[in-house]
Amino acid sequence: MYLIVSKITPADWKNIKTAAVNANYLWIVISVVLGVFSHLVRAARWRMLIEPIDKKPGMANTFAAVMIGYLANYAVPRLGEVSRCGVLARYEKISFAGLVGTVVVERIIDLLFMLLFFLLMLLLSFSKVYGIVKTKATTILESKWDSLKHVNLFILIAIVVVVIGGIWFLYKKRDSLFGFAKKFIANFSGGIKSVGNLKKPILFWSYSLAIWILYLFSMYVCFFSFSETAHLSLSDTLVVFVFATFGVIAPVPGGIGAYQWLVISVLTHIYFISQTTAFTLAWIMWGSQLILILTVGLISLVVLPLINKDDNKTGSNTIEGTN
Predict the structure, then answer these.
(1) Among 216, 222, 223, 297, which Cα is nearest to 254's?
(2) Which of 116, 146, 156, 308 is most buried (CB neighbours < 10 A)?
(3) Rounded to the nearest 5°, which phi and psi values hold at 227?
(4) pTM value?
(5) pLDDT tens track for 184-242
(6) Interior angle at CA 240, CA 238 and CA 275, nearest 5
């Protein structure tokens, strides 16, 4: 975050404020709506994976669990994958380990589609991206190497102490942990195998493609909110989208900082968009999705106990057994 904003002058901030005020937010609203649809499709796809291992959960519970997972990711990266499994396991009385297995399958499939979009980007825009990839990748690797050469000895000692302590704890609890691990692995394997037992595989893969197309178009429509980026085509959007995706999966909450840096870099270095517009657009796109996740995620946290009130009363014993 500091690296992004440290070189912005007071005059730049004034221009950024003007650009933000003059943006056409109708397109941002459309982008948010497309984002909601992508999350709904993700929930529908997850239900299909869960059905072979236990039962098909309710759409409301599944969607709420997905949104709570996204919310958790803004606190701690990848915490959401565990959180949504815990939420759905509690309200639908489904094996937590089995749900984790289905999420692993989801992530593998998402990785495949990410690679597919990456290859499509190279096919359509290789000449545009080669230069920036070479330059930026070299810069990042050099900076990482420099940081590794100056790692604080205290941090290394602390890591060694934590690892030794963890090994000692696992050794002392080995008997109880072995039984838990055996059961967890069995349920987890069932979740992994669920993709091979789908009742409607064509619909499942259609959902998977639809998720990524909705992601792409949710960014594409944002470009129309600024006159300077309105001319960018769908193939241009694909370039920005692929780089932005690497920012989202970076090990920082919600991709904050990494997402903006990559979007700004691509827009300014490849498409020669002004720094002011690139900066403003990157923050508006990221901020609009943040507002969506915070709003729907918090509503889900409040609403879930209410819509499952009767089930919670009658199934408390089952929940304890599941956990």
Answers:
(1) 297
(2) 308
(3) -60, -30
(4) 0.77
(5) 565 556 555 666 677 888 999 999 999 999 999 999 999 999 999 999 999 999 999 99
(6) 150
Q: Which single residue is written with the structure tokens 């330059």?
A: 135
Instruction: Express each pLDDT in 234-280 by its tens digit.
Output: 999 999 999 898 877 777 777 888 888 889 989 998 899 999 999 99
Task: Tell me how far apart the alpha carbons of residues 106 and 110 are, in angstroms, rounded to a whole number.
Answer: 6
Residues in the chain: 323
Q: How far apart are CA 41 and CA 257, in angstroms?
A: 27
Residue 159 has φ and ψ, to the nearest 5°, of -65, -45
Residue 219 CA to residue 222 CA, distance in Å, equals: 5
Report residue 127 CA to chain centroid gap.
28
Burial 297-317 (b: 16+ CB within 10 A, else e): beebeeebeeebeebeeebee
Euclidean distance between CA atoms 123 and 107, whole angstroms: 24
Per 3-state DSSP, what percentage of the chain is helix, strand, and coil (rounded to 5)?
Answer: 85, 0, 15
